[in-house]
Amino acid sequence: MEFFAWCMIAAGFGMAIGSFGTGLGQGIAISRAVEGVARNPGASGKIMTIMLIGLAMIESLAIYVFVVAMIILFANPFTEQVMSLVG
């Protein structure tokens, strides 16, 4: 059962690091966009469009981390090998 405990820990750390990184990236992107609109209000439409596309790309990284964590937890390809070694 130690293998499955390590899988849970790895998935948890992966989600924590992935969430931290994407949250930090989104915060920086939004602050820079607001700064750009404050400097040039006329370009707010272009800045908003580019920011939303960038945020979608950053958010896709968080979704990929979530998918990998779920694979580690529920569809682990090494489960059979570990169980054969244990039992």
Automatic annotation (TrEMBL):
Membrane topology: Multi-pass membrane protein
Keyword Transport annotated: yes
Keywords tagged on the record: ATP synthesis, Cell membrane, CF(0), Hydrogen ion transport, Ion transport, Lipid-binding, Membrane, Transmembrane, Transmembrane helix, Transport
Subcellular location: Cell membrane
GO molecular function terms listed in the Swiss-Prot or TrEMBL record: lipid binding; proton-transporting ATP synthase activity, rotational mechanism
Superkingdom to which the source organism belongs: Bacteria
SUPFAM superfamilies named among the record's database cross-references: F1F0 ATP synthase subunit C
GO cellular component, one term: plasma membrane
TM segment ranges: 47-75
Domain V-ATPase proteolipid subunit C-like per the UniProt entry, residue ranges: 9-72
Family assignment from sequence similarity: Belongs to the ATPase C chain family.
Physiological role: F(1)F(0) ATP synthase produces ATP from ADP in the presence of a proton or sodium gradient. F-type ATPases consist of two structural domains, F(1) containing the extramembraneous catalytic core and F(0) containing the membrane proton channel, linked together by a central stalk and a peripheral stalk. During catalysis, ATP synthesis in the catalytic domain of F(1) is coupled via a rotary mechanism of the central stalk subunits to proton translocation.
UniProt name for this protein: ATP synthase subunit c
